[in-house]
Please model this.
Amino acid sequence: MSILLVNGRHPICGVHRVPGNKNAALPMIAAGMLADGPVTLENVPGIEDVENMFKCAECFGAKISRDIAARTATIDATRLRTARLAPELASKIRTSVLFAGPLLARMGSVSLPPPGGDGIGHRRLDTHFAGFASLGAKVKAGRRILSVKAPKGLSGAKMLLDEASVTATENILMAAVLARGETEIYNAACEPHVQDLCAMLNSMGAKIEGAGTNRIRVEGVEALHGTTARVGCDYIEGASYLTAAAITGGEITLTEIDPEVFAVLEKTFARFEVKWTVDAAKRTLHMPARRRRRKMAYDLGDAIPSVSDGPWPMFPSDLVSILIVLATQTRGTCLFFEKMFESRLYFVDHLIGMGAKIVQCDPHRVVVTGPTQLTGSTVTSPDIRAGIALILAALCAKGRTTILNAGSVDRGYEAVEKELAALGAEARRCDLLPQPLGRAAKVAK
Model:
């Protein structure tokens, strides 16, 4: 088990480079399977989920070449040997399901074991396979295997998605680009990473219109060619480090950001008096240090505010856990309404154990009152986003916090303890729980 030890109350200050977006890189790797030539990705993040996605691509027969230092990777799927994925690979990553669309379009069939991923609640796949069925595929979903076949090829269709699912939108898009005729996807996801995928597919020869809106049109083409595409910035990762500085009284500069994306986050963070300035030309963001305690902005009539998540451009679900920690260090009370995953908020038990004033109303809602002085404790990371939230709590807590299962954070964050240490934190990784000194050892010391 990977364990992270954090000594709190050290201001997080300095410059942090925001890496490539995990949620953009994963579908872009899958899209590389559609090309009849090499596809090169730039700004690829060095995280565990990306490594597992490349292993999945290799399982199908793609050749992968990497330049870790340059953050580039080349996918050559010219000759694929199978449309079946090994169960042990699928179990390691949720987005293994994103190979369904490309392989269905390219090879006419695909067989995938059920995908793995974080245990944050039920994450349905119905929208994916309803979309494939609309394109003419035959779907067979068992407990051990997900099988999709289109022996006569795919044909364009109009469809209304029953939810604005990001991965379903991406999967259907990748199947539709090689389908005959025109496909219209209504209630499509609008997230920045969906837009990155559309830009990449268009550079490969696809004909996609409407990226960034909830109605996307695709005119099918016969084949796609190789290209070079850049992965956009990981605004979730960047906002995590921004919050680390805010709750510890530090200041930070983020580089390699997308100004338009952070403009969407700005209003919600401003509720907690977290404000920044952006240099769009240099693609940098600066948040200055603040001496006095941050105060929550209440609604009209001095009503308690609420923060809720939703499809882009609403506040991202992946940042709710992080904002809850920010609320524990901000004067005032706030209701958080997490609408998308019924198990995401269970981690607040650990925050309560550290001294946070939180009332969990139900699986989707918590009320947080701050500020409170958190105290170091032993906690367990259940998933990526809860894990980084617990690390943030440890950074502002008094004393030392031991975070078990810290390896879960590696799926979405590059060398988090090294990045934090470079910004002034006291954080180190270990493989065994540190043992308290016995009386004899103390005397000897």
